[in-house]
Amino acid sequence: MPGEHPPVYVDFLNGPDIAELAMTNDEILAAIEGQLAAQGRGNTVVDARMHHMPGLANGHFNVLRGTIKEAMNVSGVKVVGDFVDNYKENLPSELATLLLMDPTNGKPRAILDASHITDMRTGAVTAIGAKYLARQDSKVLGHIGARGSSYWNVRLLDHLFDFEEIRVHSRRKESRDAFGVKLSRDLGKKVIVTEDWESCLKGADIMVEASRLSAPEPLFRTEWIKPGAFVCPYGTMSALELSITSVMDKMLMDDWGQARSGKLGAMRQHVDAGLLSEATLHAELGQVVAGLKPGRESPGETILLWHRGLSISDIALGHAMLEKARRTGIGQRLRWF
């Protein structure tokens, strides 16, 4: 009948579907590197994340929104719950849903379990950051944190650098020991589980801080950073000393707009104190990936990348998963209307 809408179908990828896709390291990295380059060329729209605090538990929701114009032509919204005590219920600390939509007419395209997407894309941004900003001969990784994204940090970094030494630490002994065992098994190499922050981080070539603190606490000491190191902090609560900016030759973010929003983040206090600003920021990572600004220019440069996580990273990886799912027949199609 005239005026009736044609049927609209939505692809649905649940957790087991995402696992069945078995995205390779290179597929994940390619999706995120392409997104960063598109962002650097100005072909994306990124809204600052919003925080929703239910006040019922030790956690909050993040709402991320964005659009990738070139090639993918897709918009998306991700809602991720970040609840520190979920381990007590044998649940991941981060549980997320991603909705992909057509940016020309608003039609929904897909719904994806984005919990692992969050982990994968976070690790990929860390690894791509290191690809452009760390010394290419980096051989020692020090990593704080054992949550989901930590696994992908270490896995994807090692894929690019093939470390001679990997050190990990987290607050709870049982989680850090299990993390070390899993990494050693999956990477096929020894992983050192340390008892404290200093023995994990001091003197490492690449230093990643993905801690799960309940309140800001300066556990990451500036004096442990050697010249030429690449430092990547992204804990929700700051673990850094204010002095960290004084030893950096270059400081970068995934998106400067993210520094202006919310009260959380590894370098929130540095922004509030004026130590990290538009004047002191060297570049956004996408500008480096797109070749518009230089990354590492000498072995002695000490460089920091603070990434807070972007909607467009979720969207790019979700889009890559959707394309692979369609090629391989994985997932379900749901009638929308």
Automatic annotation (TrEMBL):
Q: What InterPro entries would the database entry show?
A: NAD(P)-bd_dom_sf, ODC_Mu_crystall, ODC_N
Output the superkingdom of the source species: Bacteria
Any one Pfam family match given in the protein's UniProt record, by short name:
OCD_Mu_crystall
User: PANTHER family, per this entry?
Assistant: KETIMINE REDUCTASE MU-CRYSTALLIN
Q: What is this protein called?
A: Ornithine cyclodeaminase family protein
Native source species: Falsiroseomonas selenitidurans
